[in-house]
Task: inverse folding
């Protein structure tokens, strides 16, 4: 039996490359080219057009996802907010903020092991749009908790680059832009692309799937004080796997792992 220390080192050295389970693949394929059957927000922006992305609700599971109004899902823009602001490959980001939306909750769940999420370590997704007059147009906002029952720091399943990666809902956009993630999640999705604070993934082929209820929040089971993105992401799998089985026909994910050279 491996000790907890050796297991942590193993997780830190491997990037989990999960195959997309059949039920989730069927969901992805079925909805990619169709219109959103149940839009629960106004159209927001992918950063490539003024209003091309809605929050869509899957009535069967009550999960929500970002859906392009012209077909496809969402792109990947980089959120460099939080503890890693202005460092590493986020050094060229001019819009980073020193904290994320749920900093206080991060401290609570981690027993103050960390002060805030770190974009280089924590695989997180940005959901919700305050649409403030300063950052947006002052129009209708979208609050994932009030409007769809999504809890802060809950697990989000991300289908990207023909793999499944887990993150948490970790930040909110003050304006109208959608499709932002931490740089660590973006690099797991697209390790061969030139990802930085100023360069994401422009194709609208990424499915972000968020689940309602407190059961989607990993709390103590997540390794908030992880030393690497791989370790943090792997710690979300227990909750994530259970949630993903609720989509469509159900089915257990299959897993492979591969060594990934991290960009510095």
Result:
């Amino acid at each position: 039996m491996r000790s907890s220390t050796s297991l942590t080192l193993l997780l830190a050295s491997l990037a989990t490359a999960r195959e997309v389970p059949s039920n989730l693949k069927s969901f992805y394929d079925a909805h990619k080219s169709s219109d959103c059957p149940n839009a629960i927000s106004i159209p927001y922006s992918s950063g490539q057009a003024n209003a091309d992305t809605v929050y869509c609700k899957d009535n069967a599971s009550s999960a929500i996802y970002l859906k392009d109004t012209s077909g496809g899902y969402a792109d990947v823009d980089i959120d460099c907010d939080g503890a890693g602001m202005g460092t590493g490959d986020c050094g060229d980001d001019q819009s980073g903020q020193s904290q994320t939306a749920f900093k206080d909750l991060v401290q609570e769940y981690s027993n103050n092991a960390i002060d805030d999420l770190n974009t280089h370590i924590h695989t997180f997704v940005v959901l919700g749009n305050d649409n403030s007059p300063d950052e947006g147009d002052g129009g209708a906002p979208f609050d994932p908790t009030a409007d769809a029952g999504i809890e802060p720091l809950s697990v989000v399943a991300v289908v990207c680059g023909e793999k499944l990666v887990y993150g948490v809902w970790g930040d909110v956009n003050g304006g109208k832009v959608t499709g932002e993630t931490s740089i660590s999640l973006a690099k797991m999705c697209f390790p061969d692309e030139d990802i930085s604070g100023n360069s994401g993934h422009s194709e609208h082929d990424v499915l972000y799937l968020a689940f309602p209820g407190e059961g989607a929040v990993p709390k103590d089971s997540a390794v908030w004080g992880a030393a690497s993105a791989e370790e943090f992401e792997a710690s979300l799998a227990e909750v994530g796997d259970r949630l993903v089985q609720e989509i469509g026909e159900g089915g257990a994910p299959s897993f492979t792992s591969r060594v990934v050279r991290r960009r510095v």
Remarks:
- The chain has one domain: 21-251.
- The first strand starts at residue 15 and ends at 18.
- Residues 21-251 form one domain.
- The chain is about 20% helix and 25% strand.
